[in-house]
Amino acid sequence: MSVDQPKVLLVEDEPAQREVLRYNLEAEGFDVAAAPDGDEALLLVEEVMPDVIVLDWMLPGVSGIEICRRLKIRKETRDIPVIMLSARSEEVDRVRGLETGADDYVVKPYSVLELMARVRSQLRRVRAASVGQRLEYEDIVLDSETHRVTRAGEELKLGPTEFRLLSIFIEKPGRVFSREQLLDRAWGQDIYVDSRTVDVHIGRLRKALTAQGGDDPLRTVRGAGYSLG
Ligand code: CA
Fold it and tell me: Ligand 1 center to residue 17 CA distance, Å?
């Protein structure tokens, strides 16, 4: 096993599905740890510290949603991307899954190739963020090392809070973040900030991003929060 072989924790109670996924993940070069239920999964997270978690929603005992919630409130595990698998295709369930902090959501029955692509994509994002690379969304480029943001090649003027907000969004385009999640990630848990403050800074970020005439890339999702794209 090579040192930089990425580790995947696979949590799925159905043995046949678990084995198909394990086979495919190993064929992709991942080091796979598998758990059949939530309790085992929580133990393995500590032991393995996986790079990505593929998590079934419907599990005996602790549900996938609950596991995800627990992982996302802990500082040590919150940055591990979680791809939630679910037989629930309703929009409300998808939003609920993502609100719990899941980074991606795949509806069963899924294509194994599609799921592998999602796993690779999550892995690329965490690696890009950890080495301070440039993150891009359409014509917006954020350099986390130099703290510069450009749109269509023109440098944008962002305050530190707007920069942090954009960093959160650009790592996960399309992902809806609630005001509480944005408060927690951009301001930290220790400071008391009113959730309307989030709206104010989102407004400033919007203004900065569209200052040179481009389309507004930020989406307001009624009752849920905000997303980039
Ligand atoms: Ca299941």
Answer: 9
